[in-house]
Amino acid sequence: MKSKTSFRDEVREFLIDEMKKGHLQEGQTINLAALARKLKVSVTPIREALTQLQQSRIITAIANRGFIISELSLKEAKDLYELVADLEVLAIENSEFDDDSIRELKEQQIAFKSAADTVTRINAKLGFHRLLTKKYGNSLAQHILEDLKIRVFFYEREFMADELLYSKSDNQHDAIISAIEDDNVPTASLVLKMNWMLILDYIKRQLPDV
């Protein structure tokens, strides 16, 4: 018999997967009863999963409305992208890359370049960054990065339809791989930071300062 924790974790993973597929929108209310029927669980593990996501600021609880996917804001975008950039730089500066790591990065970069739609492209990009930092042994930092990148997905799906911008990001990915191959971590870190700031600058121009 499954524990309440197992049900909660399954609900959380289901919701995160729905977000990554683009099936949930910012500002959308989560219908607890409908979700309980769909997943064939009680409302209790759903509330527990949503509370976990609320702690990561992915979900917001609003009086008389319930749980919603958190709205986007300029302040959060700044905090989010700067923190992700800093954590990823810390991660690669404390990682050892072998031939298999570099091969995986190159394969993921091909997936990024060949993505046929925006959602696939964003997930391929986030997959590249996940591979870039997976050798970092700090499990707490890894967990934080995973949650932060769920929010990154919403910002990029909303604002990142510009093919030219992704072309620039594509070139930066190639430069990161090249620097890692040359065992030049300082250059890889610099380009990685630039990569996140490029996207942040683009998003800042489109979000109202509220």
Biggest sheet, strands in spatial order?
Answer: 1-2
Structural class: mainly alpha
Which residues form runs of ≥5 with pLDDT under 50?
Answer: none
How many DSSP helices? 9
Q: What is the CA-based Rg, rounded?
A: 18 Å
Q: State the oligomer.
A: single chain
- The percent range for strand residues is under 5%
The tally of beta strands, per DSSP, is 2
Helix content class: over 70%
Instruction: State the end-to-end CA separation.
Output: 48 Å
Largest sheet report: 2 strands, antiparallel
SSE run: HHHEEHHHHHH
Average pLDDT reading: 90
Principal-axes geometry comes out as: globular
Describe this structure in words.
Strands 1-2 form a two-stranded antiparallel sheet. It contains nine helices and two strands; from the N terminus they run αααββαααααα. The model has no long low-confidence stretch (mean pLDDT 90). α6 packs antiparallel against α7 (139-159). With 210 residues, the chain is mainly alpha-helical.
In short:
It is built from nine helices and two strands.
Layout of helices and strands, plus pairs?
Layout: H1 4-20, H2 32-39, H3 43-55, E1 59-62, E2 66-69, H4 74-93, H5 99-113, H6 118-133, H7 139-159, H8 163-181, H9 185-204
Antiparallel strand pairs: 1-2
Keywords:
two-stranded antiparallel ribbon; single chain; globular; mainly alpha; 4% strand; 210 residues
